[in-house]
Amino acid sequence: MVANGDSDGDKGNEERGSELPFSRGRCIALVSTVAGAAFLNTLGVQATVIILPTIGRALDIPDSRQQWIVSAYSLTFGCFLLLWGRLADVYGKRLIFIWGSIWVTVTSLVVPFVSNEIGFDVFRGLQGLGAAAMVPTAIGILGVTFPPGKAKNYAFSCYGAGAPLGGIFGNIFGGVLGEYLDWKWVFWIFAILAFIVTIAGYFVIPLPSLQQEPISIRKSVDWVGGTLITVGLLILLFALSEGNVVGWSISWIPILIAVSMFIIAVFVVWEWYLENKTERRPLMKISIFKNVRFSAANIIMLLFFASFNNFLIFATYWFQDYLALSVIQTTIRFIPTGVSGVIVAFITAQLLSRVRGDFLLTFGTASVSISSLLFAIPIPASTTYWAYGFPAMVLSVCGADTLYPALTLFTAKSLPPEDQALGGALINAVGQVGRAIGLAIATAVQTAVIAREKGLSVEAIGSTGQGLRPMDEALKAGLRSASWFNLSIGVAALVVVLVFFRGAGKIGGKH
Predict the structure, then answer these.
(1) Residue 464 — φ and ψ, nearest 5°?
(2) Taking a C-beta distance cutoff of 8 angstroms, is the pair 500, 292 a contact?
(3) 421-461 pLDDT, tens per residue?
(4) Which of the residues 34, 382, 414, 460 has the least number of beta carbons within 10 Å of its own beta carbon?
(5) What is the SS3 assignment for 222?
(6) What are the DSSP calls for 349-410, one per residue?
């Protein structure tokens, strides 16, 4: 729990918490290894986005279905997070992390050899399944390994920097390999990196002790709850992703969304029943949401990453579709996010134990909101990148690398050791759902505005962008409308921070 003020014992606690669980070298290796999970996850997505047209030509996949090369991965990743998180808490975080990285390695090696569209999408989904095992267990490993103090703050800050760094290196990685080598090498080199993480994980992740992995939690796994939430999220994310392809007027899209909401509601009731009426351990204790700030933290994560993810996507559209810049030219414009990410991660580690939590979260949500604002206001297209694009890129990653470590650390401190991986899964699953919902709404806003400007129906615009060209005023209006929407959800996250985290103490302090 975030403290509401300093206590006389803070200094002594910080001194005890600053003690490293292992040698400094092994601690650095451990943090680098588990941060590799976040890095590889976003690198794999971004590198694939850059080479989508190339893969589409190689496998004869039409433009309207190319997004499934990315969506198949995101679907399995987002849907299996909670189940893998609980399995990691029950059977061992180290075991699940290593087997997840092995799975990613093998599937990444196989993907380029699959020559048909359906098979390729299936193996992309299998890649996401492995990543879903790695990411929440990485957070759980950090949560149970490091005691409260500076070392834990650094660990979570470094982990938080992994995702944005993976995004920028994914752009460079995919752009350079796709341009100068062969698109298949994107997956093969990705497999090599995953293999390195596997070997490092085997040697540096500590074996679980009885204190870290209580025997009592090994009695059972809530397979009913795991099935309900996995199927419910699968249907929801599928409907949201497919809605942007086939259009939202198709009758079965809202039907699938309604079905998914019903299944998720059944999951909540089932978990409440297990927790309150039986002796069985639920997949997720519903009572944890009685902690108002814990619930607010998940809402902030949903809203923030909807805004942040949309900012990156629509900034890419602005540079490539509207300004007609090449992949490499666009990639160069995203480099400040990587450089800033490293700097901000180091600074955040220092601030977590020195600055109040509400200040950090306010800064993070305000930063990403301003990033979207800079792309929303009517700045002439001829304006230099340094006047709006550069500050927007820097502010966006300042927001992400401040807010994500703060929220993951807060989650780790709010839950007992046996629920650490599940907590990591929950915070990432909420972010994934936020990304899907945010992108679906922003895309619908963009398409509606373009259709209005063109005097055409939404269906006529479609997923292929009929009648659009670089420097098209309708395209510009659509992109800026989407940015206004991104600003609104960023501001909504800011409001949640101001209401529910007002007066919050230092997240990096003692429990």
Answers:
(1) -90, -5
(2) yes
(3) 777 788 888 887 888 788 878 888 888 898 888 877 666 66
(4) 382
(5) coil
(6) HHHTTTS-HHHHHHHHHHHHHHHHHHHHS---TTS-HHHHHHHHHHHHHHHHHHHHHHHHHH
Each residue of 72-120: pLDDT tens digit? 888 888 888 888 888 888 888 899 999 999 999 999 999 999 988 889 9
Measured CA to CA, the distance from residue 234 to residue 456 in angstroms comes to 33
Question: How far apart are the C-alpha atoms of 272 and 270, rounded to whole Å?
Answer: 5
Tokens in use for 362? 């306010």
CA distance linking residue 447 with residue 441, whole number of Å: 10
Q: What are phi and psi of 288, to 5 degrees?
A: -65, -20
Neighbours of 292 (CB within 10 A): 11
Give the CA distances from residue 293 to residues 172, 381, 382, 402, in Å, rounded to whole numbers and listed in that order. 38, 42, 44, 18
Q: Is the pTM value of this prediction over 0.70?
A: yes
DSSP 300-325: HHHHHHHHHHHHHHHHHHIIIIIS--
| Four-way CATH pick for 22-500: 3.40.50.300, 3.40.50.720, 3.30.420.40, 1.20.1250.20 | 1.20.1250.20
- Do 264 and 235 form a contact (C-beta atoms < 8 A)? no
Q: What b/e string do you get for 360-396 counting C-beta neighbours within 10 Å, with b at 16 or more?
A: bbbbbbbbbbbbbbbbbeeeeeeeebeebbbebbbbb
